[in-house]
Specification:
single chain, 131 residues, 5 helices, 0% strand, elongated
């Protein structure tokens, strides 16, 4: 549990400066390029989301496998967070500060983080019962 908290705290810590950086960089882009970037991000976000939700700790039977699972989910969650930030910045620039769009992204991010904890805790408890 301690590793999960540290991993998620580190992800959030890294996403804060990324948000600031992304907001500045996207604002410098020509506005006629925003829709292309939005399409690209919308398409590419599917890959890390799929890899994050497909992976589970069920087959991780050793501590080494569990640690590699943490590394894998760290990077996929970081990429998901970065892409969600880019989507948020673009949507705010393109259509304004619409609460519904921002709320959907925040809830989806909450689902990603919650899944990380739920999957790990569920599967490590079942592993400890098997041994």
């Amino acid at each position: 549990m301690k590793v999960l908290i540290i991993k998620n705290a580190l992800i959030h810590f890294l996403l804060i400066p990324f948000y600031i950086f992304t907001a500045k960089e996207v604002a410098l882009m020509p506005a006629d390029r925003w829709d292309t970037l939005l399409l690209f991000i919308g398409l590419i976000v599917i890959a890390p989301i799929t890899s994050n939700f497909i992976y589970n700790y069920k087959n991780a039977e050793t501590q080494k496998a569990i640690n590699w699972g943490h590394v894998t989910t760290f990077f996929s969650m970081l990429v998901i967070g970065m892409l969600f930030i880019a989507l948020d910045v673009l949507l705010v620039l393109m259509v304004g500060n619409v609460l519904v769009f921002r709320l959907v992204l925040a809830l989806f991010w909450l689902a990603v983080v919650t899944f990380d904890f739920a999957d790990f805790l569920t599967n490590t408890k079942s592993l400890s019962k098997q041994k």
